[in-house]
Amino acid sequence: MDGDFVSEDRSLLNLTTGHLNTGLRGVPVGTCRTSFVTPEEGVHYCGYPITELAMLAPEDVVYLLFHKELPNLEQSVEFREELQSRGAIPDGLEQVLATLPREGHPMDWLSIGIHTLGMLGGVDDWREDALNLIARMPRLLGLIFRYREGRVANIPSDDLTLPLVGRFTSTLDLKGIDKAIMNRVLSTYLVLHMDHGGGNLSTFAGKAVASGHATIYSSMAGAMNALSGPLHGRANQSCFEFVKRIGTSEPAEVERFVRGELEAKRPIFGFGHAVLRSEDPRASAQFELGQEICPDDEYFRTICVLREVAPMVLAENPKIRNTNANVDIASGALLNFAGLQDAEYYTTFFGWARVAGIGAQIVDERTVMRGGKGIPIYRPKYIAEEQTLRHLN
Ligand code: NMX
Ligand code: MLT
């Protein structure tokens, strides 16, 4: 977008009453410097189509979101060292995690964990706090797994020299898995999920909280709460749970299952999108990875059949604007194959990734936009409904 676009006053939308109570669908509210989403080609980070970035290291993509350019080799090395220097978790986090209810959802643990990092180590500087949080996420996530699963003995110390993903897998320290596969699946997962334009629910929620000058940590905890809903980030958990319930990759059985879910008025998780109008390239990239690493895995075969069958069935309902697979269709099968078998944790990986995009967008909104003054406090207008003026007397 050129600089003149926002400086010139121009009409963007003819707003009508038809736009009310539609969840702001398609209503332009601001500009975004990290990514944009087109209905047919999906998300682009700082101009690059996501499929061209999928195989890059997460650290380099975080750099891109913050600097708007990919790093050269020297910048890449320096940025890894910077993250390393920011990565140490402040004392006190583990004591808090030890008190949390084990039956609580991991997304609630994540939100509390992020709040706790803020209470223990926040420095009240948008950029510093955003980068510190990104650098501390792998250890936080690993500790959430360890404490919630009750595996608190012999947790390896945090090896800050490892890449972000390696720090998580080394904290998790699962036996009998292929760590190279797990690292690869998680690295790709992180890159694909880091950002998705300015208006997805969790990013919007995080930026709204930050607009009142709450800290990055509070804003991010709010964003994680938004992400935890099954229509948003938690669709990845729900999708893998129903793939397990299908229990077969036989096409007729899969179709029967999809129809049964719709008859029971349950959504077909992993399909549909508010903006996209073709298959999400993030889903296509994960299918490609699956074809390479686990083509014969039964869950992977099931989602391959679902990818064909569900759009056909959903297309029978003209109300559904996008019947294609979205980002959440394939991640569960890949994470499961890599050895991460408890679907309840899947949305925490989404959250881990999104901290980068939301963090970069908050830094932009608070310190760059409007000539560095920042976006004012969010305050959209709601129109009174079923309220007439009345008085007590
Ligand atoms: N299964 C069943 N019904 C659907 C689906 C689906 N996959 N997708 C859309 N619909 C329904 C939707 O509920 C709405 O019904 P109603 O008019 O009765 O309220 C109607 O079709 C029109 O919806 P759309 O305008 O096509 O989609 P909308 O923008 O409202 O919602 C989603 C987008 C993503 C919330 C919706 O497609 C959905 O619920 N999908 C399943 C859950 C899912 O996979 N979510 C993850 C999205 C990605 N993410 O990470 O956030
Ligand atoms: C996302 O990645 O946040 C989802 O695809 C939802 C969205 O963009 O609205």
Would you write up a description of this structure?
- The chain has 393 residues and is mostly helical.
- Helices cover 54% and strands 3% of the residues.
- It contains 17 helices and three strands.
- The chain has a three-stranded antiparallel beta sheet.
- A hairpin with a 3-residue loop joins strand 1 and strand 2.
- Helix 4 crosses helix 7 and helix 6 runs antiparallel to helix 11.
- The longest helix has 23 residues.
- Bound molecules: nitromethyldethia coenzyme A and D-malate.
- Nitromethyldethia coenzyme A (NMX) binds next to loops.
Tell me the Rg in angstroms.
21 Å
Shape: globular
The number of distinct β-strands equals 3
Distance between the termini: 56 Å
Give the class from helix and strand content and strand pairing. mainly alpha
List the total number of helices. Answer: 17
Mean pLDDT: 97
| Biggest pleated sheet | 3 strands, antiparallel
Percent of residues in helical segments?
A: 40-55%
Ligand inventory: nitromethyldethia coenzyme A, D-malate
How large is the share of residues in beta strands? under 5%
The H/E string reads HEEEHHHHHHHHHHHHHHHH
Show unreliable segments: none
Q: Strand order, main sheet: write it out.
A: 1-2-3
